[in-house]
Every structure is written in C-alpha cells, then in structure tokens.
Amino acid sequence: MSTAVLLYTMRCNIACAHCSVHSGPGRRGEMDLERARAYVDQLAAMPEIRFIDISGGEPMLHPQEVTALIEHIKRRGKSVRLTTNGFWAATPRRAEEMLRHLKAAGLDAVGLSLDKWHLDYLPASIARNYVDAARVVGFAPLVSCVVRGDCADPRAGAPEDLRVLLDFYGLGEERATDLNDWGRYMDSLAPEARAEFLAETIRERLLVNWQYLTGEGRAAEKLHKEVVWRPLSATPEERCSVAGRMPTVDQDGRLFPCCAPWVNHPERAYAAPPGRLGQAIHEMEARPALRVIRQWGPKRLMLALIARGHSFPRDNSGICNLCGQMLATADLEELDRAAEDVLRAQTAGREVMAEI
C-alpha cells in the first residue's frame, strides 16, 4: 500500500463516453475542505502511505480548495499528485501559469487524462500546452490513456491504438515511456542518478500510464461494441494487486478499496467512522474478499459466489468488470462468505467448483 486517493468531487465539466465512474456535469457536490484536511491528517499517520492522489471527477473545478489541500498534504509530509483533464490549459500561457501555481503550492506530480473520447469535448492542443508547460515548470509530463483492446491478453508494450492516439495529439509515440517501467527503473537508481534521470525525463520523455477500455460506468452503455467481451469460462484468472491497497475516499466520506469500479456502488462502501480512517483502511485490507481478489483475482471469487447460487451476466470485459458484476448482486458480507469458501478450499488443497 503506497497510494491513497481523495475523490474531491464526482462532478466533471465533460461527460466522456468511456468514463468508468459516470462523472459529468450532472453530478453534484464536492468534499468539504475541512473534512478533506482531516482525512489527510489521518493518512499522514500511516507510514505505508507515501502518495495522496487528488482526483475525481474533475478536481480543478475547485482550484482554490485543491491548492489549499495540496499545501496541507505537503505540510503533513506526504507526496501529492493531481489527476485532471486539463481544461484549464486552453492556451500555453494559462497552462504554464496554472502549473507554476500548483508547483508553488507543493504539487509533486500531475497527470493529464488523454484519449480519443476526450476529443469530443477538449481540443488536442490542450495536451500539447500541458506537456510544453510541464517541461518549462519542472514536472515530468504524464498522460493517462484509455485505449481499445483486450484487457485479459495485453500485448507487449503499448498497443497500436495508443501509438495512433499519441501521434494524433502531436505528442510523439517515440518519446513515450511506460510509467510502470519508468518507476521501476527510477527505484533502482542511486539518488544522484535518479535526479539526473528525472531531469532527462522532464526534458525529453513523455510518461504514459495506459489501460484498456473496461465495460464499467458509462462505457457499458455508450461503448459496448468497442469493449472486448468474453464468457467467464474463457476468462483467465488475473489477480488485482490494488484491491484494498489503494484506499479511496469519495466526496461524501465513503471508503472504497479502489478508485473504480467499487465507487459505482456506494452501498458497498466500507465503514469509516469519523477519526478512524486509518483503522478502517487496515480492516478493509484484511477482509477475506479483498484478500482473494489480490491473491487469485475476482474470477475465483465469482466462481465461489456461483457455487453459492448467485448468477451473473454471460460475458465480462476483465477484472474491473468482474468486480462490478459481483458488487451489483452481492453485499460485503456475501462477498466475504464466498471468499472464506475459497480460503478454506485452498487450505484443504482443493478448488471451489462452479458450473460456468
């Protein structure tokens, strides 16, 4: 566990077809700033949390509050990242002014959400303004992309859809560096070499955090034909290492084990009594259902639920969608009971079998 997420608002100025959490102009509300500061104070007491991500929705619809929250996170000794669609980078000057302002507040990293569905609302020039300004101000340019493809059978490196996307935005696929590969390499370097490589990244590279389109959120309706679907019997087991280890708090104070798809099911939030966020996170992480998802993946848990009499849609689009389907039909206690079946079967050296 290294990152916690604060969903400052679920409102967004745009309503992209692929959005996995239904963000858009029709969503209302934002996190109370004092409550957000209290969450940060509690997260600061957890040494395993290194980063706090401010996300949404579009958090930069509230720039003053986000700035104050960044300052508070830094005062509490944590690194802070921001995820945004970059609507504020409409001109080169505005992009640079905003990034300078955020860096002065203490922001460590900023990631721009970028994909073909954003182009229905925001011009490609915003991405170029952001990247150019990031290099000037001293941020490593980072873009987060969703592309079409097969979640369960990822090809080596970035898929062709990503290359085409980056070229269309004028960002140059040849400069792209996978964020996970970059992070592992950075961790292997001595401090002086790490600083040199970071400077090179700021000057020359484009960090890319990409994932395949899932069938969650708005995409289930708007992009059904673009999602790769398969029956459960043809779905490989794929574990999810972040389940319960990316604690996410939404604008209403609900605690989730990841930033999607759990957020789409507020009735499945974990209890987080006031002043006990750290304890609630540790208790959530230890829940049987999340242990099974981390160790074997949601398919194993779904098979156990089927053995208990639950039924699910014939097809799925990968691990996020499998979780979404389970959350739509089983409450937290039912998930844990099915997970305990899996854990007992594993201890006994057998599998939980189900008809699929």
TrEMBL record:
Q: Which SUPFAM superfamilies match?
A: Radical SAM enzymes
CDD domains reported for this sequence: Radical_SAM
Pfam families with a match to the protein in the record? Radical_SAM
Q: Which domain of life is it from?
A: Bacteria
Cofactor(s), names only, from the UniProt record: [4Fe-4S] cluster
Q: Provide the GO MF annotations for this entry.
A: catalytic activity; iron-sulfur cluster binding; metal ion binding
**What are the protein's UniProt keywords?**
Iron, Iron-sulfur, Metal-binding, S-adenosyl-L-methionine
| Cross-referenced Gene3D superfamilies | Aldolase class I
Radical SAM core domain span: 1-218
Matching InterPro entries: Aldolase_TIM, Radical_SAM_PqqE_MftC-like, rSAM, rSAM_sf
Q: Which PROSITE patterns match?
A: RADICAL_SAM (PS51918)
The name this protein carries in UniProt is: MoaA/NifB/PqqE/SkfB family radical SAM enzyme
